[in-house]
Structures are given as structure tokens and as C-alpha cells.
């Protein structure tokens, strides 16, 4: 009976998530200038009920990724339940995270694959539920190409009767302020209808890797432009470049110099 109970995936605690979001609204702005989101309409399109199960597949550049996902998830789909796999060893250390939608999966083992598929089946049997995952499976810089995916996402997409995968590109970069930016870009959703007969794991993997590559390349161009107008700011942090540098800028500006050093 004990193992059977453990196999049931708990729903995220709304109270715990509300408390943690309050913490994030204090913590994240201490480290970032802003969290900025591009092409939110693509996410809304992917979440339409007729598109079936929704999986958000993002790149994995940083330790900050789970926190970024929580912020984006609440900004776009606050009434949905959001889930994500987590290394079983880390889940044992931070059991509180299981109350916020993260579930344990053993790494690099058949048992872990079975855990992931079993949890995913439970998630998609529940209305208004979203699965978030990082198919690269490890921290990876945003620049290397081609993107290399582990098999989990492709196996899942090939097995589900109807699924939509939204590629989500994330980048942490400095613009003109003291603190870095969190930039997020929603890519074009990949919809796999129930009648799709070309859903071999290899072809699904290539298709999804291409979709995330396109979203990441698009975000790189937007990041290089350093123009916040292309994004919606969903969480704003501190302004300014530090007291000494700001003073230098003010003095230079007063003397008619260019504000950029």
C-alpha cells in the first residue's frame, strides 16, 4: 500500500505556491533588472483546449530556470496546475518542492523513464494541467548548435493521443543596467494531432529540437537589439547602474558628453 500511495502524483498546493510567489517577487528583483516575455500570444494559442495536452519545452541555461518558469506560468496560465520533473536525489533533499508541482525522476535509468511516463499520464488525465521540462537534461549554454535532446520528451509526444509542445527560450543577459535581464521567448507551438501517423520518436525529436532552436535564435536577435519594447515586462526589479557610476553619468551628461562610456 505504501508504494501505491507514493505513485499518486500530488496536486500542487495553491497556498504554498501563493506564498512562494510572494517570496519570488522579493527575491528575483534583487538579482535581475526585469523578467521580460515575448510572444505571449503563442503560449495562449498552445493552451487552447482543442490542442490537447500541453508540454512546455525550454532550454536549460541556468539554476534560475525553475524560478523563471514559476513566474511565467503564473503570468500566463494562473488557473492551471503546473508540473515538472526533478532529479530524484534533489527531490529527496527538498521535499517541499513536491508540494509545488515538481515530481522525482531517477536519472539515466529505466526506472526513471517509467516514473516520468507514469507521472505524465496522471498530469494529462487532469484538466487544466501543464507539464514543463528541459529536454536537454543538463545545464547548457544558449549558443551551441545543434541542440541535443534526451529521449523523454520525444517518447512522450509520440505516445500521447494529442499533444501540443510549446518551445520556450530563456536567456539571462546584461543590457545597459547594473543588473542582468531575464528574457523569455515563446516559440511557435508544435501541434501533434491524434491522426498524425509520422510520430516516430526520431522524427519527433528532430522536429522539437528545430522548434526550440528557432525560438532560441529569435530570442538571441531580440536580446542583441537591447530593446525592451519587444517584450512584455512581467516582473520589474531595481533601476540604475550603481551610485558611483550614476554620479559619473550625471556629471558627464551635465557637461554635454555622451552618457555611454
Automatic annotation (TrEMBL):
Top-level taxonomic group: Bacteria
Keywords assigned: Acyltransferase, Transferase
Plastid in keyword set: no
SMART domains in the record: PlsC
Ranges of residues in domain Phospholipid/glycerol acyltransferase: 54-173
CDD domains linked to this entry: LPLAT
GO MF, any single term: acyltransferase activity
Official protein name in the record: Acyltransferase domain protein
